[in-house]
Amino acid sequence: RILGPPGRPPAAADFPAVDAGVKTEDGGPAAASVDGRLEGASRGIEYGIIETLLSLVAQCTPADCSVPCASPANSHLYLSRVLLELTKLKPSLMPQAVVLATSDVFQDFLPSLTPTARENLGRWLGFHLVNTEYQWPKAYWDHWTPYATTGGRNSRGEFIGTALRCMAACSSEGAVTVVKECLPPGSPLVRSVFLNPNNDDDEEEASSTE
User: Fold this and answer.
1) Dihedrals φ, ψ of 192, to 5°?
2) Among 4-18, 41-55, 66-80, which is the least confidently predicted range?
């Protein structure tokens, strides 16, 4: 569960909406390649900043740890808000860098990360999308879907499930909001994540949207 202010998780109303559109250097839309990455998108200093912050997110104190964080660099909520503020501060650069860095982490590093690191990154993405009006390239959901809908557990599928469930936990209408506002229409992720028999709380909510 995402760490937030005492008494409630962080909600979308806590932060102004930002534009998460992804553009190339010449201002045109970036096209997704077959593996879900963006073609024609640049990797400047902003990419390095996001990559560094995500590496810190992955190393954060686990959500169920009762020991206080030694410093803000170990606080999941603090780092998540720093990433969000950077996105708001540089809306023409940072959203693209967030998408690119997340894609690279998903494609190249997730299988080698510890379960805690994967959970930290999934919780961050859920928090980030709730607070950016669920804006995320459809091509990524399409590319990611098989990892979470095929039989058997895998690191990428667990990351996707964590992100979606955290979005539901932070949304006013739970899974209903995620299904309506975030996922592509008819996405198999609805059934695999929210209608899974192991997720009884989400099942009742999501089933009303189908």
Assistant:
1) -70, -30
2) 4-18
